[in-house]
């Protein structure tokens, strides 16, 4: 028997938030409403760049483990690897994307094993040829309020509507302009301008464009140790612990900037 949502109200609320900074939080609330008992994480994928975690319902302990694994091994994530060669809207289970040696890989040990994750489903909502929103539905042995098969059926049911909503959100957002296909990420020098020094903002811009510390040192003609010191200072001032969190803060900033522009217009 097909699985249908008990109410369409969360979906209606999400549609009403397309042109506001609350769209992604509203999407998080929709996921919690429709998929109770499942660990959820929403990622932004962009070609040749680290995935950005946008929304999640992980515990603090799980979040720390996930950030560590994704920062270190994101290129080994089978779902990220699948997207690199398959850019269409899609829905995949872990079994669909893994190779024979997956359960012996560093990514499995650092991510799945440490988090206690035994299965995962990923929904890929395409934004462009180079970008997508990827929603992870994680299944844990100790969390069985929502069965995997039922969750999968509900995802399939909601998928076309969510894909359409994400397309509209993306096209109406300044992120669409600032993350143009094939171009480096544009980062306003006003991002964290009230907290960071001019040099630190330059370092942030290059980090968000995907450059490693050694590349940043060459670009700015400074020593590698100086770049590392800048990174430590940036993380401390922004009260973050990882590059993932830096991307997340930038995403939220861009959303707020877009909202302010709409209000002023």
UniProtKB/TrEMBL annotation:
Keyword entries, A-Z: DNA-binding, Transcription, Transcription regulation
Coiled coil (UniProt feature): none
Domain of life of the source: Bacteria
GO terms for biological process, alphabetical: regulation of DNA-templated transcription
Molecular-function annotations in GO: DNA binding
Gene3D superfamilies: Winged helix-like DNA-binding domain superfamily/Winged helix DNA-binding domain
InterPro entries in alphabetical order: Sig_transdc_resp-reg_C-effctor (IPR016032), Tscrpt_reg_LuxR_C (IPR000792), WH-like_DNA-bd_sf (IPR036388)
Pfam families tied to this protein: GerE
PANTHER family registered for this protein in UniProt: DNA-BINDING TRANSCRIPTIONAL ACTIVATOR DEVR_DOSR (PTHR44688:SF16)
The protein's name: Uncharacterized protein
Phylogenetic classification of the source organism: Bacteria, Pseudomonadati, Pseudomonadota, Gammaproteobacteria, Vibrionales
């Amino acid at each position: 028997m097909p699985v249908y949502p008990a109410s369409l109200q969360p979906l209606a609320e999400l549609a009403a938030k397309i042109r506001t900074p609350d769209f992604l939080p509203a999407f998080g609330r929709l996921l919690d409403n429709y998929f109770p008992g499942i660990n959820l994480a929403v990622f932004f994928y962009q070609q040749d760049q680290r995935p950005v975690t946008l929304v999640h319902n992980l515990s603090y302990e799980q979040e720390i483990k996930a950030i560590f694994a994704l920062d270190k091994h994101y290129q080994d994530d089978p779902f990220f690897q699948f997207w690199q060669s398959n850019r269409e809207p899609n829905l995949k289970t872990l079994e669909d994307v893994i190779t024979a040696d997956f359960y012996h890989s560093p990514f499995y040990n650092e991510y799945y094993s440490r988090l206690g994750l035994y299965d995962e489903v990923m929904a890929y909502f395409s934004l462009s040829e180079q970008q997508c929103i990827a929603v992870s539905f994680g299944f844990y042995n100790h969390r069985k309020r929502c069965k995997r098969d039922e969750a999968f059926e509900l995802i399939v049911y909601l998928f076309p509507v969510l894909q359409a909503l994400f397309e509209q959100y993306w096209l109406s957002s300044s992120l669409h302009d600032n993350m143009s296909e094939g171009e480096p990420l544009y980062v306003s020098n006003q991002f964290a301008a009230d907290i960071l020094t001019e040099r630190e903002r330059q370092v942030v811009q290059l980090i968000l464009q995907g450059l490693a510390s050694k590349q940043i040192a060459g670009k700015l003609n400074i020593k590698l140790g100086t770049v590392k010191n800048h990174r430590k200072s940036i993380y401390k001032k922004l009260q973050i612990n990882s590059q993932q969190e830096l991307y997340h803060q930038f995403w939220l900033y861009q959303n707020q900037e877009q909202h302010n522009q709409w209000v002023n217009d």
